[in-house]
Each structure stands twice: as C-alpha cells, then as structure tokens.
Amino acid sequence: MRDLDASPKVDAAQIGRIFREESGRSVATLIRIFGDIDIAEDAVQEAFAVALRKWPFDGLPPNPGGWITTTARNRAIERLRREVRGRELLSEVATLSPGNDDPGMPKEVGPVQDDRLRLIFTCCHPALSAEAQVALTLRLLCGMTTDEVARAFLVAEPTMAQRLVRAKRKIKAARIPYRVPEDHELSGRLRPVLAVVYLVYNAGLTGPGEPGLCSEAIRLARILSTLMPDEPEAAGLLALLLLTESRRALRTRPDGSLVVLGEQDRTRWDRVLIEEGQAIVRRCLRRNQPGPYQLQAAINAVHADAPTVEQTDWWQIVALYDQLLAVAPTPVVALNRAIAIGEVRGPAAALALVDDLDLDNYYPFHATRADLLRRLGRHAEAAAAYERAAAMAPTNAERDFLRLGGRASR
Amino acid sequence: MAQYLLSVHSVEGETAPAMSDEEMQQSWKRIQVLNEELRAAGAWVFGGALHEADTATVVRMSEGEVLTTDGPFAESKEHLGGFYIIETDDLDAALVWASKTTEAVGKPIEVRPFRASEA
Questions:
Q1: Are B82 and B7 in contact (CB under 8 A)?
Q2: For chain A, which has fewer Cβ within 10 Å, the N-terminal or C-terminal residue?
C-alpha cells in the first residue's frame, strides 16, 4: 500500500542540498547537448521544481543526479518543441550527436570527457573578466544562487545578476567554445581556472554550511592535476586544498564558533588527507618550479608536521613566506608572513610589519592587529580592533569569534 | 561558422617611430603573408587598411534633408586604421588570427563578433 503518511520522506532542505551537489554536472551536460547556457540553466531549474514536488512523496530516486539530468533534458526538449527556433535547434542537436540515443546519461570515459571540465574552461575563458569567470563558475558549476555569489564577492545582487547576464551573452555572441583547450594552449588557460577553483574551495570553507563546495573544488583540482601532469601549480593547488581540508572539521565548534590553528585538537586532523597532500608537496619540491599554490601547500605541510603549535618549525614557515612574497607580492601574503614573524620574533615585531600594510578593508587585518595588541597587553586598542574586525566579518561564526575577543583563551 | 571584425585602432598624434624603407617593406610583407594565410585557410572575408581619419566624410539626416560634412564621425582621438572580416568556427580560432595580426601590424587588435547574418 502506498505510504500516505504526512511526514515527507525527504524534506526540501535535503533536496536543496542534493540539488546543489548535482546541478553543476547536469547543467554542464545540458550545455553540451543543447549548446546554450540559458536553456540548460532553465531546464535544470525546472527539474529542481519537479523534484521538490515529487521526491517528498516518492522518496529519492536511486540516482538523483541522473534523474535531474534526464528530467531537465526532457523538459528542455518539450519546451523547444513548442517554438519554431527551438525545433530548428533540436534538429541541429540531433545531427551533431548521431547514434547517441540517450544524451542525458553520458558515460564518463575519463577526466577529459567530464562535461564540468569543459564548462570550467569556458567559464574561465580569458576573453571574460576575472570577476565574470569566478561568478559563472560558482553559478553554473557549483549551483550557487546569484544572491550567494553576490555575497561571496561583496557586491549587490543586481550588480552580480547583470555581470552574469553580460558574461553569458558574450559567450553566446562571441562563440566562446565549449571544450577543454588543446595541449599547447593549456598552461595559459589554466591560471584563471586554478584561481577560480581555489576561490570555490574558500567559499565552501567560510560560507554558511556549504561543505559540498569544498569537495567540488577538490574534485575539480584532482581532475585538473591529473589532466595536466606537467603543471606543478595544478598539483600545488590540489595539495593545498587537501591539507586545508584535513583540518576543516576542526575549524569550528558544534555551535559554529571558530577554533584557531593553535587551539585545534591535532590528533583529529585527517592523516589520510595530510599524507596525500604532503606526498604531492614533496614531488613539487623535487620538481623545483615553485609557484604560489605550491608554496602555500608547503606552508600547510609544515603545520601538518607539528604535533603542537609550539613545535611548529616557524623559521621554515617564514622562509616559505619569503619565497611566496617574492612570487606573489600582495599585502595579504605580507600579513600572513607578519603573523609567522610574530611567532619567532614576538608580537611587537609583527605589529610593526602589520601596521605598514594598506589593508583597512580586510577584516583579518584588524583581527590580526587585535590579537597582536592583546598579546602586547594593549587591551583597549585590542578591543577596538576586535570590534572593527567583527563588524566586517562575513559570517556569524567569525563575527561571534571576534566579538569574544578571538576566544581569548590563551 | 561565425564572422568576426578584427580591427586596428590608431591613436591620433601618437605616431609610431618612423619606419625605415626596409622596415616598411618587412611590415608590408608580413601582412601579405597573413593575407595569403587567411585566404588559404578559408577564413578571409574582407580586409584592408584605411586612409587617415581626416579623409573621412560624414553623411547624415538633418531635418529631413541629407547633410554632408567633412571629417570623421567620432570626435574621439582613436580611429579605425584598418580591419579584417574573418570567418571561423569560434572565438578561439578568431583569437589565433588576431594574435597573428597583432604580430604583423604591431598594434592591439579588437575582436568583435558580427550578429548572425544568415537565416
């Protein structure tokens, strides 16, 4: 007998999470089939609406991702059949994929065949602005809403919506191709892709309950480093993400408040991820073609080696930051280097470096100053800096953490 | 297939260092080679270099009558110096031709897609 119990088998929040995990793959596949981003996005959105109606009563299909792709493809075909131009497009689609009787369920032959990889290279095409590249990737590959993407960039939603519309229009009008670049173009095309993957990971790390983004970023980094074994920075990015991921569960308490590196229970760091990350870092060191991601991975590998914060090889970390500052001379890198200097030369030396930086709009700058001032016993100034940082912090967890004076438990 | 405008813009008053006869010959030759290549690849639609912008004439409708005036349309300091119209599969292929063009002429090339003309 059919279960008519009022309590749903899956709730809307669960469906939302599954959808977020799966929509990138579906959108990527539909873009390949129909050659049009808007058609793909709309159809996948419709499939989501159908899922919200059906799944609470029918339960989850055995393969929710495949279900979304097939449903979206069928919806797109139905809709296109209703319009003249749509019917033309459908006949083109049929000629382009002969013998493919179920284009909604493509077999993944290898990393090169992954539609999401095509999509990320299109989203990160150098003919698009850097902002548009990241926004498109988060929207199309990671299934983030325009509003979420807007918040990740600290811009108003209409501004972000306009940026996405303009980027999609350019892809279509200028015919930016939907394919993975050929070998000779790969290295130049890789840089923006890596930057975007890194940003996606960070959106998962600091965003409100979006761990799916972290695994999505790691998966993309894995594919990229497999596909481009000659690109040490692709390997470096993967190592950096794995090492960061090894500590992610320890970054926050069950109530969402932050736990700084020095206060984390290091016995609970994920040793499997650490070993994989460190093995990649060692291979990068042997190759000796350092770049920003490899150096950041190496810094994280040093942290992962230390059984306690006091036993950390801070001199090694300072040396790596010196190298990083040479290849990526940004104020944020200088801030992190100053924090490491603080561990070897004390808070006064670090504060002198920090106060020289032009980072007034970057909340970790104020948080760092607050911590250094507190360690120097300048409590009133520390409190003001904590308040400044808290007011700018992007998430509640970070805001609460800073309002409590950075835990102040040391 | 899609058509693209590859345009060279020159900035008024910003004169390139005077070329020797030999350099001029070489530049001309590079462009001839590029033109041949474009034709051989089937990408050529049209192309050419323009006279200076002060040779331009503007015709416009003014109060129901056609008015003809001297000078370029835009008051800007940048003017179209020459262009190609090419036909390629996609933007990446157009960008390869644009790279060759900028190498040949030594100036930045703007690549713009035409609205679909057939159908």
A1: yes
A2: N
In chain B the first and final C-alpha atoms are separated, in Å, by 13
8 Å CB contact of B90 and A175: yes
CB A30 within 8 A of CB A43: yes
Residue in B with minimal Cα distance to A174? B113
CB < 8 Å to B112, chain A:
174
Residues of chain A with Cβ-Cβ distance to B91 below 8 Å are: 125, 127, 174-177
User: How do residues A113-134 score in pLDDT, each as one tens digit?
Assistant: 578 888 989 999 999 988 899 8
The domains of chain A, with CATH numbers, are 8-95 (1.10.1740), 330-410 (1.25.40)
A181 CB neighbours in chain B (<8 A) are: 92
Interior angle at CA A28, CA A202 and CA A116, nearest 5: 50
Using CA atoms, how far residue A399 sits from A107, A260, A406, in Å, is: 45, 14, 9
Residues of chain A that touch chain B, judged by Cβ-Cβ distance less than 8 Å = 125, 127, 173-177, 181, 185
Find tokens 């230390």 and name the residue. A306
CA dihedral A95, A97, A101, A103 (to 10 degrees): -130
pTM more than 0.90: no
* Packed helices A37-58 and A64-81: angle between N→C axes, nearest 10 degrees: 120
Residue of A nearest to B111 (CA): A174
Q: What is the largest CA-CA distance in chain B?
A: 52
The per-residue pLDDT for range A64-93, each reduced to its tens digit, is 999 999 999 999 999 999 988 788 878 877
ipTM for the whole complex:
0.83
Q: Which residues of B touch A176 (CB under 8 A)?
A: 90-92
Q: State whether A127 and B95 contact (CB < 8 Å).
A: yes
What domains appear along chain B, each with residue ranges and CATH number? 2-13+22-113 (3.30.70.1060)
Q: Which DSSP symbol is given to A269? A: S
Alpha helices in B73-115 (DSSP H): 91-105
Candidates A175, A182, A184: best to mutate against B (most CBs of B within 10 A) is A175
